[in-house]
Amino acid sequence: MAEEPVRILVSDGAAIADPKDKRIITAWSISITAALLALIGLCVFLPDPFWDLLQFISDGILVTFQVTILSITISIVIGMFTGLGRLSQNRGINLLASTYVEIIRGIPLLVQLFFIYYGMGKFLGVGGIPAAVIAMSFCYGAYMGEVFRAGISAVPKGQTEAARSLGFSDKQTMWMVVMPQAWRTILPPIGNEFIAMLKDTSLVSILAVSDILRRGSEYAGVHFNYFETYALVALVYLIITLLLSKAVSLMEIRLNYYDR
Amino acid sequence: MTVNSQPIISIRNVYKFFGSLSALNDVSLDIFPGEKVVIIGPSGSGKSTLLRSINRLESVDLGAILVDGVDISTPATDINLVRQELGMVFQNFNLFPHKTVLENLTMAPIKLRGMSKSAAQALAIDLLKKVDISDKAASYPNMLSGGQQQRVAIARALAMTPKIMLFDEPTSALDPEMIGEVLDVMVNLAREGMTMACVTHEMGFAREVADRIIFMDKGEILEVGSPDHFFDNPRHPRLQKFMQQIL
Ligand SMILES: Nc1ncnc2c1ncn2[C@@H]1O[C@H](COP(=O)(O)OP(=O)(O)OP(=O)(O)O)[C@@H](O)[C@H]1O
Ligand SMILES: [Mg+2]
Question: Which ligand is located closest to the Cα atom of residue B22?
């Protein structure tokens, strides 16, 4: 009965470390050590411009997280309904969900951002951050839909049958038996999506949103030190992504609590 | 065995098709309160389909199935209420792996019968004692052996105090040394008077508890009789061949 939990790979987020790998020297530990040493070294020994820069972009880090967390939350909700819709027996609902996924997946995220901000901006008049959140949520919602669909489908049919045979309704079975088990396969790829999204939010700097990248550009535009600026911006993204990928892999261990 | 005249399950001229394959072909069968019916037959003969159509995990294409006098295939029937009266035990146990053993037993009585948590837990602990596994109440199912899981699955079904228990090859997925512990539980249940319909290849069990044995082949019931009849003078040539193979 102890089947390997199904792993869903949807996007190319950061490489998630194998939770069972107990070795000390791994790609992850080398990367994080190198990145942290580089960051600390640069800020300590070359405080001008690096320490100055880091302080300048620090509020950009907050904006990046703000956009990412808002977008991921909304996209999870969209994804859950899309996934359920794709599995629905109702042909209308099914088509609606599938068409949404089909359309969104065929349009580059950057084009979606432009369309919502500049295209729809005329009618909606939304600012940079709302436009970014809307575009990112709908885009990632489609991918999340696939994650949910795969996660729900991976729950053995016998689980549904057992619940139904006890007298649970369709809905009760979904929320009390299927979903709680699907989360186990869904959460790790959601973690991946979160990391991928955090990187993708750098696109919104184009919409005048003051994220990490935008703040960096502003700094470089004044001090003309593009090499140093973008090196530091890259380091900051790298460290955040590495830490998050560790968190995802720890979460994966915790999710397997009911295994032998 | 006292048998009332009013059947608790009445299967009437039922047909079930999977594409062009007829999995059930004009099947009729009445099961009476307190009765123990064992269903045997070769693989693919429609045993599971028949059992699963009783609680509408499979819906039949023609004919009617009445549970306690209620036609389960009419839209007016709330199938969820009917299912609460029918316990089902599966070959693969199908315990809920994200719930502890105790929670597996208390979930349905709390949510569906409106039982208080403490009452449901007391009932669950009684049932776990009955299937001799009360020390595992706090464990998760994946920590149990197959035989233990199946005993918990039986207890989970019993927690809804069903009028009839349906078993679909409850020991087929078990290692040989665990079959006995599950059959013991089922024999005890039979002795207590539970109405049972059981698909199994365990002929020793059939001989011990069955009031009637049903032999199915190719979607049809070919022979019905007492265990003695089945062991001593099976009539249908296919049944004779089948009995030779499994004994
Ligand atoms: N969902 C399904 N779709 C298509 N065919 C099915 C389906 N379920 C069962 N069948 C077919 O219906 C026939 C009867 O199946 P059933 O599972 O009832 O047999 P069984 O007697 O329980 O066999 P076994 O001893 O192998 O469990 C078989 O030929 C099977 O392949
Ligand atoms: Mg079967």
Answer: 1
